[in-house]
Specification:
The complex is a heterodimer of chains A (about 550) and B (about 170). With about 550 residues, chain A is α/β, with parallel strands linked by helices. Chain A has 3 domains: about 170 residues, Rossmann fold (3-Layer(aba) Sandwich); about 160 residues, Rossmann fold, CATH 3.40.50; about 170 residues, Thiamin diphosphate (ThDP)-binding fold, Pyr/PP domains (Rossmann fold, 3-Layer(aba) Sandwich), CATH 3.40.50. In chain A, about 35% of the residues lie in helices and about 15% in strands. In chain A, strand 15, helix 16 and strand 16 form a beta-alpha-beta unit. Chain A is globular, with a radius of gyration of 24 Å. Chain B has 2 domains: about 80 residues, Alpha-Beta Plaits (2-Layer Sandwich); about 70 residues, ACT-like. Chain A, domain 2 (Alpha-Beta Plaits, 2-Layer Sandwich). In chain B, about 25% of the residues lie in helices and about 40% in strands. Chain B contains 4 helices and 9 strands; from the N terminus they run E-H-E-E-H-E-E-H-E-E-H-E-E. In chain B, the strands form 2 sheets. In chain B, strands 5, 6, 7, 8 and 9 form a 5-stranded antiparallel β-sheet that branches. Chain B has a 4-stranded antiparallel β-sheet with strand order 2-3-1-4, with helices on one face. In chain B, a hairpin with a 3-residue loop joins strand 6 and strand 7. Classes of the chains: A alpha/beta (about 550), B alpha+beta (about 170). Chains A and B meet through loops of A and helix 1 and helix 2 of B.
Chain lengths: ~550, ~170
């Protein structure tokens, strides 16, 4: 059957089970969008306000559904506007396929209108990318893109297609090709036994878990393991929610703004088992002293993560679920009374603080959210203080609840991601928590939430400052608050009204609760602006390069 | 950990942008490339890249693991000094005259180089060999006026019967 390049794109999307895409049209993408018109019954296209929003939406969609997110953009500025979104997905290992149109082949390299070499631009932030200027190469590139995005350590792939290819025709037989499953490398039995022996014989073991646990859906195995061998668990931001907050073995979040208990336990432990995590500088703040008393074991699907930041004694290259399934039969049931006593003692101190004159504290906001939502609720955050407060105070129970830009720390990620999450999970409640700084970056996506009539509740923690940087300036720069008090006069209620969003404002916990309960009744988007003190800090905190001894406690 | 010169050999798909992908990765990960050669192999679908860089043991393992992840990389292995043969080509233009011409020629002969171009004021010396030999020749010619130096960078291969595809584990 003769199909155009654009039709091949659409057919391959359908083959891959893609029924929803995000994007923004443009000149070079005209043929692609003309074909989408033809396929509109089978492929739903969500139009964003800005390509960055579309990229974050595809990312949020992928994180909420587990499917590969797909984003479309035109050449030049359309493509470059995706860059932050692609980089965000790259840093958090989110499967994403970005399809961009470029100018026609005869114009390539001539600085044509809206021409940019987006494969060159995105090389460092994609797992792989393709430049397709011959229609014969198109099916292979698209199939490759989906395979790469969703295999091994997941991540974004970009396919750039010249406009002439989107119009050219070739024989293409749409056929469903089953996804190639990578054969998991077998785990060395001796090494597995050695690791089991270390865990079984440990006096003060700790599990350090990251996003890889979520990516391999290993929550069940992790919890089994934790219960069987009585292992305290500290998690990274990317794994918030993999263990229940009420579990005595749950140490909470690790690292810079992690709990006292989690950081102390890492410092004290004699065996550290790191699962699907990369010892980032926000967790292993001082890599030379991280878990310095421990035999360190690292398990990761990506070989290049081994010994990247912290040197380990043993390492296994494996999917986490696979590893735990093989390890579990070798693990003895244990009760570590003494170690657990020590852990519970550490857990007594929270180290957070509340500014005395504040009417409303972030912990009260998050507390009210938790108390009035069920476990199925999806939480999406932006980046900054509100993100850390949400991570700290949310009573996480299930991983899919928490969607946040961990690695790249992208301010402006939240609204787009929340839109994608809600599109992918229409049956779930999506709560988007943001700050006045982050929200100002991409709040234009409100128009998308309105046109799609998405009941996303946006909680804006408005402290009138760019809080995280403000806090650092207060702590480390002698209160020299350079460019962090913007004196904005934005009236969020009026702005909400202008977009067609329902707006609320809260200055006390009571007002917030009332607003939130009202918001839960709405069927379209809602904003709740919460007035906070600018002096509220995220605590505890270990400064960059510091250790548990340097911890700042409220 | 001590750093030393490492040589790695990479088989890559013979297609556009491959060199950028590999060289860009080294740059991004903070590895400084001393020399790099790319050339065809007996398989038209594959090219071989040989890279020399300064690194320690951990760094070497890291960059091998990162490079291996690239979609275009089909095989990669380190070439250690004991088991490998390294060669480099030198072209060097030296200022000379009737008086010192034969002295230069003598040095070139000892190093089994060749004089491949001669003019009244200059000559071009060609030499192939291990990088140390090239270094030695250049050192000996330091006393003369060197006008221009061109080195290809190292290319290498394993000694003996073993060939690259047999080496699976890094």
């Amino acid at each position: 059957m003769k199909l155009t390049g654009s039709q091949i794109v659409a057919e391959i999307l359908l083959e891959q089970g893609v029924d929803t895409i995000f994007g923004y049209p443009g000149g070079a993408a005209l043929n692609l969008y003309d074909t989408l018109y033809e396929y509109k019954d089978r492929i739903r296209h969500i139009l964003s306000a800005h390509e960055q929003g579309a990229a974050h939406a595809a990312d949020g969609y992928a994180r909420a559904t587990g499917k590969t997110g797909v984003v479309f953009a035109t050449s030049g500025p359309g493509a470059t506007n995706l860059v932050t979104g692609i980089a965000t997905a790259f840093m958090d290992s989110v499967p994403l396929v970005a399809i961009t149109a470029n100018v026609s082949e005869h114009l390539i390299g001539r600085d044509a209108f809206q021409e940019i070499c987006i494969t060159g631009v995105t090389m460092p932030i994609t797992k792989h990318n393709y430049f397709v200027n011959k229609i014969q190469d198109l099916p292979k590139a698209l199939h490759g893109a989906f395979r790469i995005a969703n295999s091994g350590r997941k991540g974004p792939v970009l396919v750039d297609i010249t406009k002439d290819v989107t119009a050219a025709t070739m024989d293409y037989r749409p056929e469903y090709t089953p996804e190639e499953k990578e054969i998991p490398a077998s785990i060395d039995r001796k090494l597995l036994k050695k690791i089991a022996d270390l865990i079984n014989g440990a006096k003060r073991p700790v599990l350090y878990v990251g996003g890889g646990v979520c990516a391999s859906n290993a929550e069940k195995e992790l919890n089994q393991f934790m219960e069987l061998a009585e292992l305290p668990v500290g998690y990274t931001l990317m794994a918030a929610g993999v263990v229940g907050a009420d579990n005595p073995k749950c140490l909470g979040m690790l690292g810079m703004h992690g709990t006292i208990a989690a950081n102390k336990a890492i410092d004290r432990c004699d065996v550290l088992l790191a699962l699907g995590t990369r010892f980032s500088d926000r967790v292993a703040l001082n890599p030379a002293k991280f878990a310095k008393r421990a035999v360190r074991i690292q398990v990761d699907i990506d070989k290049s993560e081994i010994n990247k930041n912290v040197l380990v004694d043993f390492s296994v290259i494996s999917d986490i679920k696979e590893f735990l399934q093989q390890l579990l039969p070798l693990i003895q049931e244990k009760h570590r009374g003494e170690w657990m006593e020590e852990i519970l003692e550490m857990k007594k101190y929270s180290g957070d603080s509340k500014t005395s004159d504040a009417m409303l504290h972030p912990s009260e906001i998050i507390g009210i959210l938790c108390d009035n939502t069920d476990k199925e609720t999806l939480y999406v955050t932006d980046v900054g203080q509100h993100q850390m407060w949400t991570a700290q105070y949310l009573k996480h129970n299930h991983t899919s609840k928490f969607i946040t830009s961990g690695g790249l720390g992208t301010m402006g990620f939240g609204y787009g991601a929340a839109i994608g999450a809600q599109i992918g999970r229409p049956e779930k409640r999506v709560i988007h928590i943001t700050g006045d700084g982050s929200f100002h970056m991409n709040l234009n996506e409100a128009c998308t939430a309105v046109s799609q009539n998405l009941p996303i509740i946006t909680v804006i923690m408005n402290n009138q400052v760019l809080g995280m940087v403000y806090q650092w300036q207060s702590t480390f720069y002698k209160d020299r608050h350079s460019q962090t008090s913007p004196q904005r006069k934005t009236d969020f209620l009026k702005l909400a009204d202008g977009f067609g969003v329902k707006g609320f404002r809260a200055t006390t916990p009571e007002e917030f609760k009332a607003a939130f309960l009202a918001a839960m009744q709405e069927t379209g988007p809602v904003w709740i602006e919460c007035m906070l003190s600018k002096n509220e800090r995220v605590l505890p905190m270990i400064p960059s390069g510091g250790t548990i001894e340097d911890m700042i406690i409220g | 950990m001590t750093t030393k010169k490492e040589v790695i050999s990479i088989f890559v798909d013979n297609q556009a942008n491959v060199l950028t992908r590999v060289a860009g990765l080294f740059g991004r990960r903070g590895f400084n490339i001393d020399s790099l050669t790319v050339s065809a192999t007996d398989n038209p679908d594959l090219s071989r890249i040989t890279i020399v860089f300064e690194g320690d043991e951990v760094g070497l393992a890291q960059i091998l693991a990162h490079t291996e992840k690239l979609e275009v990389v089909r095989g990669i292995y380190p070439l250690n000094r004991e088991d490998s043969l390294f060669r480099e080509l030198l072209l060097m233009k030296v200022k000379c005259n009737e008086e010192n011409r034969s002295a230069i020629r003598e040095i070139v002969d000892i190093y089994r180089g060749r004089i491949v171009d001669l003019s009244k004021e200059s000559m071009i010396i060609e030499s192939t060999g291990a990088p140390e030999k090239i270094d030695g020749l250049m050192k000996m010619l330091e006393d003369y006026e060197i006008l221009e130096v061109c080195r290809t960078g190292v290319t290498g291969i394993l000694r003996g019967w073993k060939t690259a595809p047999e080496i699976t584990d890094l």
